[in-house]
Amino acid sequence: MSENKIKITSFLCNWCSYGAADLAGVSRMQYPADIRVIRIPCTGRMSPKFILSALREGADAVWVSG
Amino acid sequence: MGNLLEHMGIERDRVHFSWISSAEATKFVDVVKEISDKVKGLGLNKKFVKDYN
Amino acid sequence: MNTCIKKIRELSADLLEKGEVEKVIGFAKGTIPMATSPIAIQKKQDVNKLVFNSTCGLNLANYVSKGKGKIAVVTKGCDDRNIVTHIVENQIQRDQIYIIGVPCTGMVDKPKIAALFEDEILEFSEDNDTLTVSSLLKTQTLKKQDYLKGNCFYCTHKNPVLYDVLAADLVEEQKLDNLFPDVDQIETLDEDAKWNHFENLTKNCIRCYACRNACPLCYCPTCFVDESDPQWVGKGQDKTDVNTFHFLRAFHCAGRCTDCGACVEACPMGINVRDFTRKLNKDVLQLFGWEAGLDMIKRPPLDTYRPEDPDDFIK
Q: Other CB atoms closer than 10 Å to residue C135's CB: what's the count?
């Protein structure tokens, strides 16, 4: 992994942003490949410990999207 | 969440929240670009990473 | 203060004799000077063990959720707000507890007093606003106001909010222009200075979890630090793990902390754990106009959704 390659851990809601990501994919839209997607059943599943855990394990940023 | 992390000295732009409907692929792409740019500006996360070595 | 102890003992004896409560939870004299320990009294003849003074810094609300029958508890203003929080969070029913409220004039900062002496403190006594502390080498008379614990210094809820009986007359609440000068001061620092501040704060932490155990809010059957699958936070002394523990503990107290100072009181390493929770207390007050434990009916802010809740952090 090169020095300046960033990783953004993304928690995406199954019904909202995950769908949007899927649609963006099938529509062949271009977007930065810095995100690593984790699908959660609902944004209500989020917990502060997920965010801290992601940062602790080396994510450069965390993105939560409903 | 962001408030306390910022208070502790972690940059605010390391944690993002957004609301995107499943039909909003364009918004999704815009948000990814925006976040990616912001985080590139910050550089790598060095403070809050566990050093396993 | 002595009349208040007498009243507490009388009330407890009366309650136990009538069989109204199973036990009385209060403070007893500690094994060393300037210390008290929690005690549960079940027999009427034991009530003389109960005391109350300026060294009762622990929070007795911590002990109420574990009982089955009706219990009486001696509470300061902050303990009382924690009991209200327990009731709001369904940890205990109102009719299960009998509250002996004690209007509090603040607790003393023991390490601060101990720092004045080179040798061990052998005697501690108080008379209203004056403390008399003596060791082998010297005896010193101190003004209590100068040696209050940090949280008592900024306390604006000295009187119990919910009680069945009072052990003393209500005291006057102090009015402060700024409740959070310590938080404001940290906020003026830049990012790296803030980070250093908290790194230095936690660098002595030995992960004994005394702060968690002393905290009345921490009643989860399995705490996140004890979970091993998945393991949210490492068990060792790694500084990221230590910080994760403190950050998460603070988040769990958001909108619930009454700033009772039990965590600081319990910390063997003298860490001012309140630096974490205070920031959230300030945010909750500013964003939701909420202070924990003042109302039995209102739901806490993290428990409810209102359309006018601030949401400018969401894109």
A: 17
User: Rounded mean pLDDT of C166-194?
Assistant: 87
CA distance C110 to chain B (A): 27
* Closest residue on chain C to B34 (Cα): C315
Flag whether B23 is in a domain.
yes
Judged by a CB distance cut-off of 8 A, whether residue B17 touches chain C is yes
The secondary structure of A10-40 as a DSSP string is EEEETTTHHHHHHHHHHTT----TTEEEEEE
Regarding an ipTM greater than 0.95, the answer is: no
Name which of B1, B10, B45 is nearest A48 (Cβ-Cβ).
B1
User: CA–CA separation, C193 vs C6, rounded Å?
Assistant: 50
- Taking only the tens place, the pLDDT of each residue in B11-23 is 778 888 888 998 8
Domain that holds residue B36: 18-45
**Interchain CB distance below 8 Å, B22 and A65:** no
Nearest to C241 among B10, B11, B50 (CB): B50
The total of structural domains in chain B comes to: 1
- Could A6 and B29 be called an inter-chain contact, meaning their C-beta atoms sit closer than 8 Å? no
The whole-model pTM stands at 0.87
Residues 6+ apart with CB under 8 A from A26: none
Measured CA to CA, the distance from residue C69 to residue C96 in angstroms comes to 7
Distance from CA of C238 to the nearest CA of B (A): 7
Whole-angstrom distance, CA of residue B46 vs CA of residue C192: 12
Note whether residue B27 is domain-resident.
yes
Distance from CA of B48 to the nearest CA of C (A): 6
User: In this structure, is residue B31 part of a structural domain?
Assistant: yes
Q: How confident is the model at residue A1 (pLDDT cuts 50, 70, 90)?
A: very low
Determine whether the interchain pair C279/B50 forms a contact, defined as Cβ–Cβ distance below 8 Å.
no
Show me where the domains of chain C are located. Answer: 1-105+154-173, 108-147, 177-309
Residue with token string 């299960």: C96
User: Are the C-beta atoms of residues C261 and C57 closer than 8 Å to each other?
Assistant: yes
